């Protein structure tokens, strides 16, 4: 029984060592390349029910993929707790977050177009209209999602 336990501990130790060596190798090979950005633009209006888990899903997804994350919230003058939830979640996960407050749908669409045009080379921009059900498929960890 002791020999079996020692084999299990030994295999576990070898697995841990292999993971650390692969991580060290990856860091030395790719040290000059910047970590790619993932920029998520959320177009919202009174979406407090969904904001926390959407932000949480993208934070976990970016963490697992090894990407830096930035949120831009294009809000159409929400009257609920959408913006306080966003700020609390962004500070809790230590991600960059910018809020653009607009007053009409036309202003929202113009802001989204400007953000897409300002995209940088190493950046992936995802635009999600939380009121459009087709965009919900692009949220990670959603059943039937495309991520």
TrEMBL record:
Question: What residue ranges are annotated as transmembrane?
Answer: 6-25
Alphabetically sorted, this entry's keywords are: Membrane, Transmembrane, Transmembrane helix
Originating organism: Paenibacillus aquistagni
Protein name listed in UniProt: Glycosyl transferase family 2
């Amino acid at each position: 029984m002791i020999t079996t336990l020692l084999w299990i501990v030994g295999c576990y130790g070898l697995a841990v060592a292999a993971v650390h060596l692969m991580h060290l190798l990856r860091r030395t090979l790719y040290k000059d390349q910047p970590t790619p950005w993932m920029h998520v633009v959320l177009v919202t209006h009174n979406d407090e029910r969904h904001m926390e888990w959407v932000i949480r899903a993208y934070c976990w997804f970016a963490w697992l993929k090894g990407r830096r994350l930035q949120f831009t919230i294009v809000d159409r003058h929400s009257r609920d707790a959408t913006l306080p939830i966003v700020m609390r979640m962004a500070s809790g996960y230590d991600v960059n977050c910018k809020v653009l407050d607009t007053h009409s749908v036309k202003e929202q669409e113009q802001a989204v177009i400007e953000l897409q045009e300002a995209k940088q080379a190493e950046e992936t921009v995802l635009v999600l209209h939380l009121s459009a059900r087709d965009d919900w498929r692009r949220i990670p960890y959603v059943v039937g999602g495309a991520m």
